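Interim report, section 4.2 (structural modelling).
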Amino acid sequence: MVKNMIIVTFCLFALNLIAAPNIPNIKAVKASSPPALVDGMLNDAIWESSFKTGNFKPISASGQVREKTNASFAYDKNNLYVAFVCFFKDYQAKLDEIKNYGNNVFSKDAVEVFIDPGRTGLYSHIAVNPAGSVYFANKKGDIKVGVQVFKDRYQVEMAIPFKSMGFPNPKSMGRDWGINLCRTNMAFKEWTCWSPTLAGFHNSSRFGNVTGMDVDSAKIYRNQQVENNNKRLVLSLDRTFYDKQAVVSLKYRLRIKKPLKSCVAEITVKDAKQNTVWSKRVERMLFTNRAKLPIKEWSQGKYTITIRILDKKESDALAQTQSVIWKVDTYIPQEIVTIKNQNLYVDGKLFFPICTWSWYLEWDELEKYKDDKAKQLALLEERIKDMADCGFNSAISSVSFFKEMLNHTKAALADEGYASINIRNARWYKATLDDILRLFKKYNMKLIMYPPFLHKQSLNQLDIDAWKDIMLKYRSYKGILCWMSSDESDGAIKRNLQAYKLYKELDPYRPVYLNVINMTAPNRDAADIMSTDPYPVPNSPISLVKIHGERLEKLYRNKPGKSIWLWLQMFSWKEGKEQRYPTPLQERCMAFLAMNNHIKGLAYFTYINAKKRKNSQAASTLWYSMKELNRQLMLLSKPYLLGKRLAGVKVNSKDIDLATFKYKNAIYMIAVNMKAEAVNAKIDLSRIAVKEKLANVMFESRKVKFISGKFVDKFNKYDVHIYKITK
Amino acid sequence: MKINSKVLALTSCFAFAVSIMAGEADIKINVKCSPELPVANLFAPYNCDFSKGLKGWAISKKSKESKNIEICDKKDSKEKYLYLKNNKGGIHRSFSNKLFELLEPKEFYIISCFVDADKDMNQKVGPFGGLGCSFTIYDKTWKKGQGRSAKTGYTGGKWQKTVSKVFTKPDWANHAQLHVNIGYSKGSGKVSEISLTKAYSTMSLDIKSDNNLSQVIVENEKGKMVFDSDELPENSKHYTCKVKVLTPYFYIIKVADTEGNVREIKYPETK
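Predicted structure of the assembly:
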């Protein structure tokens, strides 16, 4: 869906680009020589030839800056060297401020460096305050930092070894790097940076673009991997979140080139305040060792488990590893969503999902109504009502609705592609997820929650930390149909599995939903609901929908606890110079073709808002046809989902897809012409021993008559005929 | 790890044994594999080591036109490799029923090759992306197919073994094609030693010690643990087990006794 989303939101993106300045694009400057001493004096030769940022701009790209900052940077094959000069107006006030710094590096005044090698979104974040305190996220090693405070300014000098940063897989890296240099100055409520990020410093899509970084990324990555592979100590835990569990089961694998008899292990668990809550010394070591931690009595919160392997004689640490777990509250769900026989049930009641996406406010609307919550809510309600009127009963959430969770440190963790646009929008969103859930309830719709923060490629601790707040807050809300784990993250198999496990730990009462383009089989264990997104119009045959349906059916055959959905095309692809939407006939054909081929929920990409309808007759016609289509689908949903599929009905044309169901006292035959040509087809139901001689053709006000259990019917292009034989 | 009786029935006549004396304690490790590692490369008769240049291979039109494809000698070796430069065409060869006489029904197979890919090579799209080989089995009509890829992105300036997932011969199999190409990526690189082998071998371990044994583990060459005995019962002076292993890799067998002594061996030693 993403690639399509990119097209759909192209105009929106373009508007953003007009409104926002371009990000700086520079060629990397190689360091003439490394600083002799990283002390903050900035008197080494390197700083003469390094790249100079000039004065920082406000994060929003416009407005005045009261306390100016500038920076410079250069690199060599091992390090990035960064220097900041941060001016202030009141020396005494700054000294007082420095004296009163607490543990939080960001609490008063700090400089921040963001480094995104290859612009993959896996970036390192380093912050230093004038007291010399350092914060380093995605850390793999140490950095050198020097700070000097003068009467009118403080200076920070850093040498950041590339090997000290968590490095992305070079396979996923582009050629350019994203780098940004920022300053948080709380005294003046000033957030300034080299490349204005518009919505939080973490908006990595707006880090400055640095070309020509001649760094052997593969070597750094490989060494880090070797370190991981050969990691002397590997810790694995049975869960990340614990609620009712009595114990934490952990396993640690020792890979030390020393006799096991010379080693001893120390396990300690500390709470968020660094108090030791549990510890144990293990004298007899194996290659793989197990332990159980008694978590039942521990209070809620974050715990860090540290294992140290010591040399018995020397008491030196041979290896050390850490992992974070959370003790969380048990929760009683107000609503339970289950899957039985591949169908969804909300509190025991069958639910046939017909969902859509991209129904939220657009950039220009938000800009216009940025301070007007009432107007925003009115517009959103209009759309939710619009979807409900058209027969949609569910929709996917937007990142923007998690505004209250998007604080400074978490903001642009969900930084990929369109998500960052949503985050930018979030600044002006006054409507919250609570408002949305209330409106959804009013129109009897369910929300498919797609929380931000869990990256598409791999998960890190920061992601999980930010994501869990959303889960803990909203998991007890009514009106949430399921959790969407990711969209089109086909290749991130490990990530998808990890995300699935995390979702299930925090909410075992709702299904987890994953959409992929093609790679269903490798991801089969990473979801309760799997979908794919064939979009055939105008470049592929409609039968593509059937192929996807068959593939999904095969994936979860004999798995009654899993469900399969399909995304159907409700947007335009380009054909020559024209944008081609599916026609209502094609849309109906695709929908029934999907249902004939075992699909249990339909999703349409994507909502066609009033503006699009105004601009395109085809879009408008399609949208207004959806009400009747969805009505028909809903009427047929019980035969499809609860009926018994009958074999034995034959059709003499391979262009006609036919499915037959027995439900209550009726037989339903749904015949779909997949071709753009008329077909006369003979249907033979003699083998299913039907006594009746007539069938109603639903939604067509006509009947067909059987002779010896056979009849011939005409199918115009993409026609769907639904025959109902009632006793 | 439990294995089924069919696998056990394959006990090999090519069994290979290693016995090593430990320093402080006497730990003897005997290893046999069935089939023996390294297993036979079923592609061997098909010029998949490029020893006969590009004989038997079809060069795509795009590659012919660009001429960015060549066979080179490996440095300090008589072995050859295929070099693809900014080339999305690549080479392929089709297999007739001859090959299908080699692919036994219900048997598991795996393909692998060595790749040295440059910095521009990436695998962003998933397993079919990047440089390496892929083997696709088709039905009679060439319309239905399923494939496995052994491909990778940038390998950091060195040769890297790249291994596919395991596959079987489907009932409808009729044709097959082996491709060596760059999928969905820029960049250049080298490919050599393309191999199709039976996927699994059964490794039989027979371990004896004067001291009591405490644990046995087996890791593959990439450090992935494929077997863990967990803590052995007291008084275990003799331990045997069977481990199902993938054939393209070599393995490290590690044994510890209750005194904390450790003995490890690499198997097969020659690979």
